[in-house]
Amino acid sequence: MGLGNSFLKHLFLVVTLAILFNASVVLASQSYKAITTNNHSILVSDLEFVLVPLTKSELEIEAAAWTKLLRAKAVEVSKAEIKASNQQKAIDSAQEIADITKESTELVNKKAVDKNKEEQSKKELEEDIEEIKAISKEYSKVTGEKENKTEIKTDAASLESLSKKAEEYSKKTEQIRKSTVKNLTDLKLELNLLISRYLLVLDALDSKGGDSKEMRLYADVLSGVRIDIADSNQLWLAAEAWFVSKEGGVRWLGNLIKFVVFLAFIFLLASIVGRITDAAIAKNRNLSKLLKSFISLTVRRIVLGVGFLISLSFIEVDIGPVLAMIGAAGLVIGLALQGTLSNFASGMLILIYRPFDVGDFISIDGVSGVVDSMTLLSTSVKTLDNQLLIMPNNNVWGTTINNVTGSTTRRVDLVFGIGYGDDMDKAIGILEALIKEHDKILKKPEYMIKVHELGESSVNLICRPWVKTEDYWDVYWDLTKRVKEEFDKQGVSIPFPQRDVHLIKSDV
Which of 203, 235, 405, 455 could form a disulfide with 361 if both were Cys (CB 3.0 to 4.6 A apart)? Predict the structure, then answer.
């Protein structure tokens, strides 16, 4: 019995403590009051910081408080919309009365030519008066004014007076409606501001395990701003209110100014970084002109691209979806432009391995010329007759590249033929003398003069001096001319092709 009583006492104590704990939690949650609704126009950034430490139960209370605010503001908007609608109906009714009374006045002033026309005019006038009464009754319902039960007289003066009175009513009501529409526009803007902060609270609630589905649906319904586009006054007032609003035009104007100023700064920064890059890579002689140009251009574009993405944040554009869109677009473009990407890859390889540079004389696939320019997709070559050929980089990299001017020096290969009866040593001496006295022929590497071959008509001497690459053709042409002149002076012949013909005499 003692053990049983002890167990029951301990069980009772545990249950009591559990009840007290739950009660304390409930009381604590009930004692919490919403704090974010104290300032309806709290900055979005500030509201985000306030919501971070709040628990799920506290956020539910905050969401309920914001829902209450939204409902109250939505009721105000609805009342203002009804008021504006009724005022517009009153304006339309008063204007219609004015128009009909003008027509009726014209009927009264008509002089009947015959009895048939007179009767017709009277009938039309009676119909107009009945219509005026009906419209007047509707006007009284809208404006709340007491209906005029007096009989409408059919004389011109009475009808004209009624028309003027109706026009005055219309103008007066129009002024009142302008004020109502302005108030309505302000209320809608306030409602939208509340919704934007309400959604932040709901986001915070969802992030901590809450369920805001129904509240989001409510916000979606309220967020639809209904403006009568047929009403120019309402449109103008709505636009004006948005422009002067701190959360509307003023805010976006500030964002736009920040965006433009930052873009200007980025362009300036790209220019400065580009110049620094140019100065840095100019010191590196191992880099080709093409690669230097590519690096400089790439650095500038990277700075501009990153700067532009950052600048989008100033106009409140989420960069994440933009980057995702760029990635998806890149994938699609990559699949669609496989050939172009192949040219791009070849262009990168050309830049890295430098088989040629701008200004080099190259020969590719039967095409010879000077490299004029190069992009990542194509290479431009200017031929000796000044034709500009643009070749895809894939074709350039995929074939043999003969870079004629790739080295700083070149060997000039010349062959001179002399007669079999001429003195070879004399001819070799003439060649040596001409080479030594020529100012564009290099001392090192040394030249070479040898008897090359015994031809069909001549003894061929090979002459191989070394020159700077840019002097190749000048030396080639000049030395050829001088050798001919000197051979002629010193009696060294340059024979024509000869053949021995043997005649066989036959006995017939």
Answer: 405
